[in-house]
């Protein structure tokens, strides 16, 4: 027998060692992981479309294993599916130290995720059974994702067997091995960014809810409904809703995605239709919205089912959402063609949403191979959409407020006309006195008619002035118990009270303008307008700074055309944060707080709003309110009224005693009783000044 050639022996040895090395390399060494590693390319995936394989058959049956494949991507994509899939993966710790890891499996929305851990002899060490079909507390690690802890003793080999099942959604099968500290750091950064994202939704929802309440326009209701439902959709898509809102309701956890996707689409359709208004041409365009609403409602009802119908709704609702966004872009084009140029912000918002939807869908169906875009494209585009839609809605609110300011300016001009007319009539009267008595008699009838016109104008001015004052409904909405005692000396008043709500802050004040009657009323309208400018245009929130700016506006307006007017106003101004914080600043008018039967007085700065020789910045006082506290803001008209047995002033000592005696009553009863006592005190004596008092109980 011939001897085998030496070179052939060498070749066989090399080939044998290479095969052994390849077998060794097919087992992933976990000790080489520095922070994290995607392990899908080291695994075998076995489809189970009939859900017929068992854990034991997958391990033992070679014919089943032969149907498997090794994925090329780090995150295998398996399309919209109702099948089960098995993953087999061998791992080994080749180091001399114990290694601890977290294993992340599947997407947060996967229905069933089972993990089996076996030793080198295929003996089961530990198993986990969880998924969206189970309550949240079944998860071994309480996280929105499927996280499983695993420890590798030194020189230990484990086999991981994973079974996943989907109910029709897109199924992706990441198997991501994390060092524990790396996973913790990643979660902190991710949760911070997600907090900013969802914080944007919350901020826009709260802000425009208040705008909608203030303006009572349907478009704000549709907008905040869309923001709220879109936020819940994203919250569910990320797995947070199942974790925090309904952890014990797996059915809702499974159906929330389609449910909120359909509801947010319906609310967007109503919002968009309200925004576009009506077209002179293309009237049929709006019928399309009715069709989309009906289709979405049908999808919504079908999403409450299970099985094949439920699985079909996923791609249908995705496609319908994309078509709706494109349809709205056509609406913007039609609006432009009719000469109504749409806001650039709205166009940017929906163009970004449509682009984001395209990228999101194509990335999720693996046309664009980017897990970052698959996870975040819709978030980025919806954040851009929300930002620009908020800018557009804020512009609409600003336009409404400007119209309100214009109305106040018209009222101010009307008061000026009334004052001019009154002065003119006074001059005519003085001239007529110098003329013959007979001429005076002849003119009396004319003057009577003119005086009636003046009176009617002043009465009209009173209605205009009252329109600028806060309504009783507004006070009831902002405070649980409040009232105002308002007694003008003449038909119109130089005293006024003011109240606005901005950025979760309630601003309220009582002001006493120089003089009373028409001149005082003119100043009161100007003061009301200037206060609104301070908080809306100049964005001031601190009482002292508001009074500083109010002074500048008064001085600037009353010193035009090189003429100086020394008129102004005294005021007490408060800002309440709807909790326990109250801040106050005052010009001559103090603040009274009655607490536990004791009257606490905070004095105001001794300088008026208006021209003053030596002016300093106004002081802001801050208080921590207690339950049962009563706040009193007032002008000096009540305490300065003459009357009583000796015809003297009431004075502040008696005024304070009144408040202490009546403070236990409701605010409305306090106001009524103070009015009754005021009438008794001044009986037979003319009222010398306007009276205004505001009481708020906390």
Automatic annotation (TrEMBL):
PPM-type phosphatase domain boundaries: 477-698
Record keywords: Coiled coil, Hydrolase, Membrane, Signal, Transmembrane, Transmembrane helix
Membrane-spanning parts: 192-213, 220-246, 252-271, 291-310, 316-334, 346-367
First and last residue of the signal peptide: 1-22
SMART domains referenced in this protein's UniProt entry, alphabetically: PP2C_SIG
Organism name: Acidiluteibacter ferrifornacis
Keyword Flavoprotein part of the UniProt annotation: no
Molecular function as annotated in GO: phosphatase activity
UniProt protein name: SpoIIE family protein phosphatase
Entry superkingdom: Bacteria
Sections of the chain in a coiled coil: 398-453
């Amino acid at each position: 027998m011939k001897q085998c050639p030496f070179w052939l022996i060498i070749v066989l040895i090399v080939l044998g060692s290479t095969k052994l090395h390849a077998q060794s390399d097919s087992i992933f060494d976990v000790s080489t992981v520095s922070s994290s590693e995607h392990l899908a390319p080291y695994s075998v995936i076995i489809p189970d479309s009939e859900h017929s394989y068992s854990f034991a058959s997958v391990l033992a049956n070679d014919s089943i294993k032969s149907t498997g494949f090794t994925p090329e991507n780090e995150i295998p994509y398996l399309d919209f599916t109702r099948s089960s899939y098995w993953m087999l993966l061998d791992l080994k710790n080749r180091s001399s130290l114990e290694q601890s890891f977290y294993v992340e499996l599947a997407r947060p929305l996967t229905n069933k995720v089972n993990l089996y851990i076996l030793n080198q002899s295929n003996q089961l060490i530990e198993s986990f059974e969880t998924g969206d079909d189970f309550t949240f507390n079944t998860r071994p690690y309480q996280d929105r994702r499927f996280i499983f802890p695993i420890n590798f003793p030194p020189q230990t080999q484990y086999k991981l067997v994973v079974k996943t099942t989907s109910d029709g959604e897109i199924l992706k099968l990441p198997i991501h091995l994390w060092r524990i500290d790396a996973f913790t750091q990643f979660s902190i950064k991710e949760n911070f960014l997600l907090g900013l994202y969802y914080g944007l939704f919350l901020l826009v929802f709260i802000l425009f809810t208040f705008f909608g309440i203030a303006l009572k326009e349907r478009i704000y209701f549709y907008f905040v409904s869309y923001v709220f439902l879109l936020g819940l959709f994203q919250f569910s898509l990320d797995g947070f809703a199942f974790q925090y809102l309904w952890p014990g309701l797996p059915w809702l956890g499974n159906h929330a995605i389609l449910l909120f996707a359909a509801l947010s689409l319906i609310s967007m359709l109503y919002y968009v239709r309200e925004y576009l208004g009506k077209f002179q041409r293309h009237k049929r365009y709006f019928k399309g919205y009715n069709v989309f609403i009906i289709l979405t409602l049908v999808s919504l009802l079908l999403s409450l089912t299970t099985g094949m119908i439920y699985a079909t709704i996923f791609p249908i609702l995705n496609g319908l959402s994309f078509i709706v966004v494109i349809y709205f872009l056509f609406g913007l084009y039609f609006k432009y063609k009719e000469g109504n140029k749409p806001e650039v912000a709205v166009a940017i918002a929906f163009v970004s949403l449509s682009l984001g939807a395209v990228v999101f869908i194509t990335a999720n169906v693996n046309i664009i191979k980017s897990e970052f875009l698959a996870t975040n494209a819709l978030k980025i585009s919806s954040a851009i959409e929300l930002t620009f839609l908020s800018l557009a809605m804020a512009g609409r609110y600003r336009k409404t407020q400007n119209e309100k300011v214009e109305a106040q300016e018209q009222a101010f001009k009307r008061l000026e006309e009334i004052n001019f007319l009154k002065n003119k009539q006074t001059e005519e009267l003085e001239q007529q006195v110098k003329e013959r008595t007979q001429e005076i008699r002849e003119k009396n009838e004319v003057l009577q008619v003119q005086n009636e016109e003046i009176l009617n104008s002043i009465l009209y001015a009173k209605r205009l002035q009252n329109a600028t004052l806060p309504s009783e409904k507004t006070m009831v909405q902002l405070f649980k118990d409040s009232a105002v005692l308002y007694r003008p000396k003449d038909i119109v008043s130089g005293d006024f009270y003011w109240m606005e709500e901005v950025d979760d802050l309630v601003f309220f004040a009582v002001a006493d303008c120089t003089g009373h009657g028409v001149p005082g009323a003119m100043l009161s309208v100007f003061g009301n307008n200037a206060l609104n400018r301070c908080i809306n245009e100049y964005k001031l929130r601190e009482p002292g700074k508001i009074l500083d700016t109010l002074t500048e506006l008064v001085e600037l307006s009353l010193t035009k055309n090189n003429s100086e007017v020394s008129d102004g106003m005294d005021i007490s101004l408060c800002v309440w944060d709807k909790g326990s914080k109250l801040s106050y600043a005052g010009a001559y008018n103090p603040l009274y707080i009655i607490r536990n039967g004791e009257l606490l007085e905070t004095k105001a700065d001794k300088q008026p709003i208006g021209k003053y020789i030596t002016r300093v910045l106004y002081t802001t006082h801050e208080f921590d309110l207690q339950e049962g506290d009563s706040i009193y803001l007032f002008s000096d008209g009540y305490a300065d009224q003459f009357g009583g047995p000796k015809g003297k002033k009431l004075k502040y000592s008696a005024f304070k005693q009144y408040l202490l005696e009546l403070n236990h009553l409701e605010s409305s009863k306090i106001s009524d009783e103070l009015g009754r006592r005021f009438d008794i005190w001044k009986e037979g004596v003319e009222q010398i000044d306007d009276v205004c008092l505001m009481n708020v109980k906390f």
